UniProtKB/TrEMBL annotation:
Residues 279-346 form the Pilus assembly protein E-set like domain. It comes from the Bacteria. The keyword Signal applies. InterPro entries: Pilus_assem_C (IPR031917), Pilus_assem_E-set-like_dom (IPR032636). Residues 738-829 form the Pilus assembly protein C-terminal domain. Keywords: Signal. It comes from Affinibrenneria salicis. This is Fimbrial biogenesis outer membrane usher protein. It holds the Pfam family CooC_C.
Amino acid sequence: MDKWTGGIKASALGIFFISYSSLGAEKQTSVKLGEYIIPGIFANALYQGMNVPVFIKYNGDTENKKSRQKIADAALAIDANGFLIREVTLADLPNNTELSPATKAMITGLKDKHFTDGTTLRLGGDAALNLDIKSFYLELTVNQQALAASIIPRSNLLGESTSTDLSSVLNYTVGSYYNKYANRNNGSSFITLDNTTSLRENHVNLNGSLYGLGTGDTSSNLYRAMYERDYQGRRLALGMVDTWNLQSIASMSALNSSRIYGVSYGNKSSTQIEDNTLSLTPVTVFLPSAGEVHVYREGRLLSIQNFAMGSYEIDTTRLPFGVYNVDVQVVVNGKQVSSRIAQINKTFSRKSSLTGEVAWQVFGGMLQYHRMDYRRDFGRNLGKKETWLGGGAAALTLPYLSGVSLKSTLYGFDHTGVNESEVNVSLNEAVSFNQQVMTATDASWKSISTLNLSIPDGYGSLWGSREFSHIGDNLPLEKGDFYSAGATLNLRRLTPYLGSLSLSRTVNNYTGNQYTNVDYSQTLYNTRYATIRLRTGIQRYYYNNSNDDGLQDKYVNIELSMPLATWLSAGVSSENGNMLANASIRKRFDDSVITHAGASLAKRIKGGGGDNRYTADEYSLNGFASYDTKYNAGTVAVTHTSGNNTNLSLSSQGSVAWSGRDVALSKDSQRSGVLVNTDFTEKGTVAAQVNGRTYALSGKSNFIALPPYAKYTVELMNDKNAEDSVDIVSGRKNSVVLYPGNVSVVNPEIKQLVTVFGRVRHADGKLAVNTDIHNHIGKTQTDEKGEFAMDVDKKFPFITLLEKNGGVCEAELDLQDARGAVWLGDILCIRQNQTARQEEKESEHVY
C-alpha cells in the first residue's frame, strides 16, 4: 500500500473509530469479503454508510497510476450481498471536469446499487465505478463520450447590491455664455440636472433642465421621471420615459421628439454582463490526463494553459482580436498527444457574444408627439397629439461567419403600425455589412445600407452608405435619398516617405447638397525631442442643386509636438476666397488645477475678392482653459475678433452623492459610486485603486463616481505620487456591487503617519541617552547622542519619555504641516510630569 492510499484508509478508519467508539456495547463482528477481512468496528460503519471521495480517470490513460482528480463524493455501504452505493453527490469544484448530461444523470441516479463482481459498477457503455477494497479507493473510469466540454460562460448575472441604505447621486452640467456683437450684447445660462435615488436594486431617475437663467425669459423642462428595477436578467421600467428607456434593442425612428408615459418589461438587462473578449465560437480540447495546451499562430506561441483530465474550452480572452487560424497542441507529460487547427473569431465590431439567446422587450403606454408633414418641400407643423403606443422588440445573435445579429421592433401608434428591422453581418475580420429597413402601414418606408471593408495588411479601409425613403400619410418622416462613400489609405505601406490620405463624398439627391473632402497628413520629422507633421486638405460644398462653383476651403498646416505636452501649429488656409494665416498652441499641465490650455490666432492676408458675402474678419483670437478640481471640472473659452466682437462661454460639471448622513462631491458624472470617509483632519492623500484605476483621496470624505451595473474592488494604499505615509488599519480592501443611484460607503481606519527625527535633552541640557520613548502606536529608544526616530500618528502627536530614575515627560509635537518625515530638533524634558517643549521652532522636512 502506498503512502497516499494508506493515508485515505487511515483517515477513514480514524474518523469511524471515533464516531463509533460509543458502540462498545454493541456486538462488533468482522466481515470477510473475498480475501479481505474488515474489522468489526469498521464494518459497523459501513453498514451505516460512509462517505468516500470519487476520483475520475480516462480509460485510455496508459499510465498505471491512481487519479488524484476528485469528481464526486459517494456514500459507500455493505449488506449481505456485498458493497453498494447509497448515493453519489457531484463535487462543485473550480475547473472541474464536465460530464455529459447522460453520464451525470446515471451517476446522480445511483440509489442502493451493488457492485458486480464485488468491485465494479457499470454505468452504461461509457463509464464505470471501480472499488479498490484494500485502500477503499473509488474511481470513475470514463471514455471521451462520457465527457462534455467545459464552456466558459459568455455572460454573468450581476449579484445583489452592496448598498443597503437609501442613497442618491445628483449629476449637474452648467453652461453659460456672453456675446457682444455690433454694440449689442446678450447672455444666458442653463443647468441640466440628473438625479437617481435608489434603495438596493430599485431606483427612481429624474432628468430636467432650466434655461435662460439670468434673463427675463426663464424656462424649464422635465425630460424623464422613471422608476426602474433591473435585476437578475429582467428589467422593469415605468413612468415618463424616452424611446431608449422604453426599449433598448432596436431603433424607433418613426417617433420624433416625443413624451412617453408607459411601461416596459423584458430580459434585455444591464445586469447580464457579457464578455466580448472570448472567441465567438468556442475552441475546445480534450486531455486524456492532466497537461498543457499550447496555442500557436504562424509558428509564434500565443498561450500556454493548464488543464486537468477532461474536455475544456481554451481561454481566448488574452489572444489578439481578429479572425485567424491557430494551431492547438495538447501536451501531456512533455509529449504532444494531439494537434488541430482552430479558428479564433474575435472582431471589434461584435456587440454581443451570446449566441442563440433571444433578447426581448414589450412596452406600451401613452404618447405625446409633434405631428409633422414633410410631403412638401418644407415641414408643416400639425400640432401636438396624444395617442396610444404599444409594441415589442427582439434581438438574436447567431454564430455564423464572424457573427450575425438580427434586431426587430414592431410597434404601433396613432392608427399606424411600424416595423423596424436590422441585420448586421460580419463576413470576416475585413468585411461587414449592415442593413436597416423600416416599413409602415401608411406606406412609409426607409432603407439604409452600409458596407465597411478593411484592406488587408494595414493598407487602409473603405466604407459606403446608401439611404432611400418614402413619406407616407401619417408618420413624421423626412425624405431621404443620399449616398456617402469614403476611404482611408495608409500610403506608408507603399513607402515610408508618404503619410495617410482620407477621402469622402456625400450627395443628397433630395436637397441637392454635395460635400467632398480630401485630407492628407504626414510625419516629416520624429525624434525624442520633437515631432513635426504636415496636414493639408480641401473641402468643396454645393447647395440646392446650384450650378456655380460652390464653396471651397483649403488649408496647409505644419504641426510641432514637443515633450512636456506642448503642441504648436502654423499654416495658411482659404475660406471662400479669404486667405488666412493661422497659428495655434496647446499645452497639457500635470499636477495642476489647469489641465489644458490653448490659444489660436487667425489673420486675414487676402480678401475674398468682390464677393462681400464671405468677407472674413481682419483677425480673430481664440483661447481656452480646462480645469479639474476635486469637486468640479469644466472649460472656459473666449473668442475676440477685429470687429470688436466677443464671445465668452463656460461649461462645468460634477456630482453630489449622499447615503444616510454621508455627503460628498465629485468632479465626475456617473449614476453611482463609492463614498470613502478618509477622515483626514490635515493635508494628506491616500490612493484608492478601483478595478485597476487609481484615484487620489484627501480631506474628510471623497466620492468616486463609477458607472452602475458593475462589480468593483476598491483597495486603499499609499499614494506613490505623494510624500504622505499612511497606515490602513482596517477597511483596506472592499468589494462593492453598484446599481443606479447606489452609493456604497467605505469607512476605513487610516492613520496619517509622520516619521519624526529629534534629539532629547534633560532640563540641565544634558542629552537623554538610551532613554525609552513611547507613543500609542509604538516605542523606541534614544541613542548615545540622545537622538531618536519613530512614526507618529498626526491625530495623536504625543510622545512620552520614561527615564531610568522614574521621570516621565510628555511632549506634544507640532506636526500640522509635516508630511512624510520631519526633523524637530532638541526636545527638553522636565521631570515631575511637566510638559516638554520643542526648543527649535522651525522644522525641516526630510524626504
